[in-house]
Amino acid sequence: MMKTGICLFTLAMSAAFQLKADNLSNGNTAAKSEIIADYGVPAKPAPAQTPTNGSKSVSPAKPTDKQKRWLGDCTAKETGVCTVLEKYVKKRLKDQKTYKHVKTTYTYSDEHVLVAMRYKAQTPTGNYYVEEIRAQIGYNCEMKQVVYHGH
């Protein structure tokens, strides 16, 4: 009897959660706070929508000629790492020989490319650590601004 009661309770909670999650995906923003209040976990976010303020969306499916030129001029062909950002990071390391590139991603906008790079480096005690840096790189391969640098 106890197992049946628990199963029915779980089934009812799951159905209520799904209903609220469906409301959230249909644009009902109040459903998110209800889910967090009822279950203590954030709900799955609604799918991204195209901007309505007239701004252009970033990262189109096919790279433009400008983006292709930037990839050819500002990235290493073998690894895909942004050379400007890699030089910036290496210059600040105590031991440049311990630098190891992990992953680089790009997000294009009209004015610049947001580059996110993860890398490993070694501490003086021999332990490796992983850090991430995000920076705005201009289409002329100049670093405009470091947006984030940390773990």
Kindly state the number of beta strands.
4
> Which word captures the global form?
elongated
Q: Would you identify the regions where 5 or more consecutive residues have pLDDT less than 50?
A: 1-21, 29-57
Main β-sheet, spatial strand arrangement: 1-2-3-4
End-to-end Cα distance, whole Å, is 50 Å
Succession of helices and strands: HHHHEEEE
Q: Structural class of the helix and strand makeup?
A: alpha+beta
How would a crystallographer describe the biggest sheet? Answer: 4 strands, antiparallel
Strand content: 25-35%
Average of per-residue pLDDT values: 74
Radius of gyration: 23 Å
Q: Helix count?
A: 4
The multimeric state of the shown protein is single chain
Relative helix content: 25-40%
Characterization of the model:
With 151 residues, this protein is an alpha+beta fold. Helices cover 36% and strands 26% of the residues. A four-stranded antiparallel sheet has the order 1-2-3-4.
Characterize this entry briefly.
With about 150 residues, this protein is α+β, with helices and mostly antiparallel strands. It has helices at about 1-25, 30-40, 65-75, 85-90; strands spanning about 100-110, 110-120, 130-140, 145-150.
